[in-house]
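Changelog entry: the Putative hydroxymethylpyrimidine transporter CytX record was regenerated in this release. Current contents:
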Amino acid sequence: MASSSLSTSAPDEVAPTLDGPVPRSLGFLDQGAFWANLGVSLLGFAGVLAVLQPAGAPPLTVAAAVVATVVGTVIGSAMVGLSAIPGARTGAPAMVVLRGLFGGVLSWIPSVLNVVQLIGWGTFELVVIAQAGTLAIGGPTWAWIVGAGVVTTLLTLRPLGMLRLLRRVVTILVAISVAYLAWWLFTRPAAADLGGAGSWSGFWAGTDAAIAVAVSWIPVASDYSRHSKRVSTAFTAATVGYGITQILCFVVGLAALSLVAGDGDAVFAPMLVAPLGVVALLILTLRETDQSFANVYSTAVSAQNLVPRADRRLLCLAIGVIITVLGLVVTIDDYAVFLAVIGSIFVPLLGVGVGEALVNKGRLDLSRWAPSRPLMVVAWVIGLAVYQLINPGGAPVWSDAWTAAREALGFTPPSWLSASLTSFLTAGLVAAAFAGLAERTRRREKIATVG
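Regenerated structure tokens:
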């Protein structure tokens, strides 16, 4: 049954509650600028180390890391594009779309997980903004965190206005800054040396790391694509806009790391040496609030799947306060590992959505109390298990448990096996099989009733 109680008229801004009208005002440039800005991240400059030195696998050569970055980003950004399609079709945010996949009550499971990961990433973004800001122009860390928290929260109150601002002003400044830093870094002697130790044997583990960075946006893509004028525009803008800039960001990060002997903590140092490096880094630091904006806004929208009548603006204010306080008092290092585990959960989730859609052709019941579909949850868990058995990652306890399970099964994954692709395909095939079984059962029952 295809149903949605969400209106699709076109007011100026997002309604404060889920039952309000849904603006359809974003074209390709609006969405492309948004996704392109998300692809450029202060975290990405040092985060490329996860590709160069993937957990549980041998380090890559720089050349292998570049190829893994390109392959992983193309795959990951295509997944983000796919996850943007349901929102553009239905006008529903991401976690509401999952009502059609899992049922109303069972959709609360990924909603809660998404709220947890987004609060964590929002906190992490404030910490990174503070670190980069103090390096660029100094000042107390707490002031940067509080300032970034205030700006982030204010931006979430008018989200469509924020996206228009990115297209008109911010994207141009970011493009100039990144191009300048890329030119500076790649004209340094050490940056031209793509040799060094490492191998290609951990290529797919590095590729999975690049995929993981992109797919962290899967559970929020429909929060923005729901405002797209066209479905094709939503997919293309997310895939192309995000893909190009993540590749550029990672490659620039590799160049910077080559100048500091792979020290991730010093990745900004070569940028600050450039004649206009402080200005470029400051622009990127201020622009980083679009990352924290996306995390806070989507946290509020995800929470609305649990409490649909809650005012999004009040939720954003509360969440903004929470991440600001956490940024002041929490050590994020250990939590980042936990967030990476949560992020890996959403690759098989997308696989379930694609597999189910191939059978049911996108027919979704988006009502709050849509019937539960536990078999889709089973397909999701199977996909998750496949991912973790291939690539348990490096989280204490969690990774140890999956490594022990792998050893108990006598399973040693070959180096060419990608955890992301395998879990995506497995979850999709299992979901398609379950959906087909449910459809045949429904038809038999209908025939029996008519007969």
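The chain has one domain: 28-450.
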